[in-house]
Specification:
The protein is mainly α and 173 residues long. Helix content is 82%, strand content 0%. The protein contains 5 helices and no strands.
C-alpha cells in the first residue's frame, strides 16, 4: 500500500500517489517477467514461439529503461516493488509448462495461454497508467507509457497469430 504523503494540497495529489504506486508495481512486474520469459522460451517447442519469447525479453528490457525515464520525468528515482499479480501469473506459467512438458503437441498452446494472461495484465496496467499520466498533464510520461502499451498489444496479437497458425492446431490433433 502506498504511504500517505501530504498531497492534499497538491492538485491530483491522491491520483499522483496511485500513479507512483502503480509505476512501482509495473516496474517490479517487468523485472520479474524477464526471468519468466527465459523459462517460457526454454519450454517452447516451436521455434516461432521461442523467438517471440526471446524478442519480448529484449523488448521488456527496453520497457524497463522506458519506465526509468517515466520516473525521471516526474522527478523520482525508479524504484520497483514486488508485483504479486505477476508472481502468480508466472507461477501459473511454470505449472503449465511442467504439466505439459511431456506433451509437445500441447505445450506451446499452454504457454501461449499463460503468456497472454501476462500480456493482458500488462495491457490493463499500462492502460491505466497512460490515463493517469494524461489526467495529471504528465505528457512525457504519457507518451513513454503509451509506447509500451502499444508494444504489449502487439505482443498479444503476435501470440494470437502463433496460436491460430501453429500451436492450437497442433494441440487439437
Amino acid at each position: 500500500m502506498a504511504k500517505q504523503n501530504n498531497n492534499q494540497d497538491m492538485p491530483n495529489g491522491h491520483l499522483h500517489e496511485l500513479f507512483v504506486d502503480e509505476l512501482r508495481d509495473i516496474l517490479g512486474a517487468e523485472r520479474q517477467l524477464l526471468k519468466g520469459l527465459k523459462k517460457m522460451a526454454s519450454a517452447a517447442e516451436s521455434e516461432t514461439l521461442r523467438a517471440a519469447f526471446e524478442t519480448h525479453h529484449v523488448q521488456t528490457e527496453g520497457q524497463i529503461e522506458r519506465l526509468k525515464e517515466v520516473f525521471g520525468s516526474i522527478g523520482l528515482a525508479a524504484r520497483g516493488k514486488k508485483c504479486k499479480a505477476m508472481e502468480g501469473l508466472l507461477e501459473e506459467a511454470e505449472e503449465i509448462a511442467e504439466s505439459f512438458q511431456d506433451q509437445p503437441e500441447v505445450i506451446d498452446a499452454a504457454l501461449i495461454s499463460a503468456a497472454q494472461k501476462v500480456e493482458h495484465y500488462e495491457i490493463a496496467s499500462y492502460g491505466c497508467l497512460v490515463t493517469f499520466a494524461k489526467m495529471m498533464g504528465h505528457s512525457e510520461a504519457e507518451e513513454l507509457l503509451a509506447a509500451t502499451l502499444a508494444e504489449e498489444k502487439d505482443t498479444d496479437s503476435l501470440l494470437t497469430d502463433i496460436a491460430m497458425s501453429e500451436a492450437n492446431a497442433g494441440a487439437a490433433m
